[in-house]
Design brief:
The protein has about 210 residues and is mainly α. The chain has ten helices and three strands, in the order αβααββααααααα. It is globular and about 50 Å long.
Length: about 210
């Protein structure tokens, strides 16, 4: 029987992601983050589709270069593993193109949509490895795209198209290079019975070297 990820396994994933993908973790709080939250409230009042300042602090993680700032809420082991995999992907995106990535993310909605699609896909790969299941169709993929990142309909369509392609590959056990591989390999080492047996079989066949 498949077991739930333990706190110890989640902690091991956190350490390994930080080591392999070279980032540090902090918790949101203090005057600086309060000022950022106030900015989000202003942007929201101006009509941008972004979280409220409170939601930004309490519900959203934020990655800035190689810093991952987590919300102060208590996360379950599964939530933590999925969130860190997502945010580690943004760190990897920055390392791959450090000069342009932050500018493109902030200035270009289509690039922001693509960056988010890549990070969501990495977390989806971990979710699939744990449960053997993915959303039944692209419309069920993360709704935060519609309100959390100030994306227009065409940007959301782009992100969902990328996610649909990734989901097809993931369902066959074909895992893109990225933090999901680190997370899954660590869970396999620490707590192999937390992973779905069928997913493990497909990963062994179609993504050799991950496990």
């Amino acid at each position: 029987m498949r077991s739930e990820i333990s706190l110890a396994t989640a902690a091991a994933v956190e350490r390994q992601l930080m080591l392999v993908h070279a980032f540090v973790i902090a918790t949101k709080g203090g005057p600086m983050w309060s000022a950022v939250a106030a900015t989000f409230d202003v942007l929201r009042a101006l009509g941008l589709k972004v979280p409220s300042g409170r939601d930004f602090i309490e519900r959203f993680a934020t990655t800035i270069l190689a810093l991952v700032a987590l919300p102060p809420m208590q996360l379950s082991p599964v939530q933590l593993v999925l969130l860190l995999t997502h945010e580690a992907t943004h760190v990897a995106q920055w390392y791959a193109d450090p000069a342009r990535m932050p500018i493109w993310y902030l200035q270009h909605r289509e690039k922001r949509a693509s960056y988010e699609a890549g990070a969501i896909a990495q977390a989806l790969a971990v979710q699939w490895a744990l449960t053997g299941e993915l959303p039944a169709n692209v419309e069920e993929l993360p709704s935060a795209l519609a309100y959390g990142y100030d994306l227009g309909p065409e940007d959301i369509a782009l992100a969902r198209a990328e996610l649909e392609q990734e989901a097809t590959a993931i369902a066959a056990g074909i895992l893109s290079t990225g933090p999901a591989r680190t997370t899954i390999a660590t869970i396999y080492r620490e707590q192999p019975d937390a992973l779905d047996p069928r997913a493990l079989e497909l990963i062994r066949v179609n993504s050799p070297g991950v496990l």
